[in-house]
Structure formats: structure tokens, C-alpha cells
Amino acid sequence: MGIYVNPGNAAFQEAVNSAIYVDKSGLISYTSRVMNTKQKNLCVSRPRRFGKSMAADMLAAYYSRGCDSAELFAGLKIAEDEGFRTHLNRHDVIRLDVQQFVFQDSHLDIFMGKMQDEVIGELRAEYGNDLKEDPYGLAGVMRQLYAVTGKKFIFIIDEWDCVFRMAKEREDVQKAYLDFLRGLFKGAEYVELAYMTGILPIKKYGEHSAINIFDEYSMVDAKNLGEFFGFTEEEVKALCRQRGVDYAGMADWYDGYLLGECHIYNPKSAADALLWKKVKSYWAGTETYEALKAYIELNFDGLKETVIGMLGNARYHIDPSTFQNDMTTFKTGEDVLTLLVHLGYLSFDAEREEVFIPNKEIAQEFVRAVKTGGWDGLMQALSQSEHILKSTWAQEEKAVAQGLEAVHAQTASLLKYNDENSLTCTILMAYYSAKAYYYSPIMEMPSGKGFADVVYLPRRHVDRPALVVELKWNRSAEGAVGQIKKRKYASWIRDFTGEILLVGINYDGKDKTHQCVIEKYVKE
Question: pTM to 2 decimals?
Fold first, then answer.
């Protein structure tokens, strides 16, 4: 048993022994199925504290012939698999955590040599000292070993992308590292399975994308592995029942990551909440809001307005395909938003190609970021939201109009206000508090004859009116409500059994005032 070659199972044993452990051994069924196929190379990327290292430790504990894990896996899902004994501790494994070799800047120029020397040293100890020095480093030694013995290896590489996170401006280091990986895996007959995990997908570098032999599974496209990226809804519900924790609070704080059909919870935050029986933000212990603030302040393509809208529970369409899979190459605001998806600050709805803030925990991190980023007006505006919302329910039109004017004045420096999109953004800010009572606002809800600008539908078992909001620019609030009725915008939700309020809002660009008209919807 070595540290890197055929390691033991102590790390996974710790995970299984933990107070909160969720069985993700079903992943092994898939990795065993793709072993020695064209799909044998997997790059699985997900945010910090989403169980990357636990999965790597589990695979090493199962496959490595350097330990006996029969008792450890007894009772787990994989033990029910027909091929469980076929692969259990029957394979030669090389397990690397790249971050162990790159934990300060001075290591960037030496880590590849050091890492290869450590592995080659253990290979010699395991398979004999007749392995020769090779100008191609570890890849050359592996080819020697395969030529003599025919042995194949499983490679498990954790934090594969830490180089790109630490050497953000060192393109020479990044390219050399990609060349190392390409030499190790491209066309390598000695590889029966390669499993790499990190935060970022594989960097796009023109000809240096030659490790495109890897199938990528990410927060943007988890393919068929979504259930293994975190705790599922069903798993959290079961844990809440076991530990006497209110599930509704858990869902409000930690649900919201969409991976295909799976609702995924950040396992670290969910486990801490279950362990300490207290829902709050545990994210601060894993990421600093300063990093989030830095990306927001880049302000590509009006990114600040997008953030403001998302704080108001809105969603925004993105094309994630232009993202270069690094932390510095941004051409559009969509690239920054895609990075925030990979970092776990946003969720991505692949079916609708939309991003949004997933839950209360992450919303709190966004608020922390803007609170210290010179967005004082925004914080003042958000603090007035509850009053504006209650005034809307009470049909206090003047109070709503005054509240909107205050929000406008407080945030004018952040918004390019003289357009209709910014008016929508202001409405989302003004109704920031609505997220406690309503689902995500529906933008341009379809009706029989057109679109309502914003619709708020109350959450299940919440006794609040639905809001159908129509916005006008240099016209009239009365005309806005008239349009809702004339074009039957509210008919889309006519089966909603509760009260519906029609809210017409007009902004007069000349004197910079708002008008508001609110009427109860009379069902036909």
C-alpha cells in the first residue's frame, strides 16, 4: 500500500464514519461500466464542498488492491450490484490530489516534476527498481511498465484544476500542465479508467484542448451523473425525518441547484444544518464573498443590473458554450455568469438555459458582496422592499409609487435607468421581499393576446394575492391596467383560487416620477 500507488481506504472510512453520511456508491456502477471503453475518461467538475474528494476517496477505496474494503462497502448500494466482487480491490490505482503539490505560488514551476518523482518512486517500490528514467517522465515510465507486464491502471486525480485557479495569469504553466495530462492520457493503453475531479471543466486552449478525450460532467451539464453531485431532494427529506429537522427550512436555505431532473443540495451546508439543527449560511466557511464581489464588479455587459435582477428572484438566459473554462478569460457577461455557475454561486436550468440564485444561503452571499462593494443605494432599496410589498397588498397606490421613486433614486447610479429593461430591474428590486411569499417571478408570462411583464405567484399554502404587473414608459398606469384587462393577461392564471391583483406602473422620464394603479381582478 502506498500514498499514491494502490492507496488504502482510510480517507473513505472517515467519510462513512461521519455523523452525516449519504451513500453515493452508485457512482461505482457507472465507472465500472465505462472502464476500458471509449467513455473511460471522466472529468467531473463541481463547486467546493460538493463532495468531490469524498467521491475520489470512495473510488480509490473500492478499486485499489492496496486495501481490503469488503467490510467498508458492506451495506452500501454498490454491494447489491452483480459485479461488486468483480472489481472490489482488484485494480492497480494511482490516486493524486494535485493541490497537495501546489499549495503556494512557488510550487507552480516545480510541482509537475515533484509529483511525477513521487509516483515513479512508489512504482519502483511496488514493481521493481528496473524501471528506467524516461525523458517523458511518468507517461514514459507507465509505457515501460505496460510493455513489460501488460498492467493497466485506474487514475483518480482530485483538484485537477487547482493550477488554473492558482496560476490565473501564468499561461506558460497552464499549457505545460495540459501537455503533461495530454501525454499521460492521450492514446494511453495502460489506462483502464481515468477519473478527474475539480471545480472547472477542462480548459479550452486551441490545440491544447487535446485532452478532449475526457467526457465532461459539470454543473452546466451533469449528463447522467446529477444525483452524485450533492444530496438529492429525497435524501435530504429522509435525513430530516431521521434527525427531526424541518424540511421546508432546509429547502428554502439549500435547495435550488438543478442538474437535469435532479434538485441538488450543497452537501456540506445541508450536513452542517442537519448536524447542528440550525439553518443558516455555512457557505462563508467555504468561499469568501470577496471573490464573488470581484467578479460582479467586472460589470461585463451590465452585469450589476443582472445581479440586481437575480436578487429580485429573476432568471437570465445565457449561452455557457463561450466560457473558456478558466477564471480570467471573459469576453461577455455570460462568461462571468457561467463561471459563477461552476463556483456554485448560481444555478443553471439547462432546459431553459437560464441562470438564477439558487437559494437563501447564496442570496445572502450576494447581499454580503454588494453590501461591501459601494452599493449603498441598493441596500437602502432592499430594506424598503417589505414596505412596498405590503402597500401593494393593501392597494395603497400612492405609497407604492413613492416607494418605487425612492428605489429609483437610490439605485440610479447602478442602473442605466433610461430604458424599459432597467424599469423591470427596479421593480424586481422593489419586490425583493416577495421571495419569502412567492415563487420566482415569471417574466413576460404568456397570455391569450400577449405578455404580462412580471407575474408573482404565491408559494403553496401562502395566503397572499397573485400579482400581475404591467410596466409603461411615458404613458399611464391606468393604461397599463387597462392593457392587462383588454388583453386578458390574468386569464393565464384564472384557475388560481386566491385573489389576483392587477398592478399598473408607469415611469415618466421627464419628471422622473412613478404612478401606480392597483385593481382586484374580477374573474369572468
Answer: 0.88
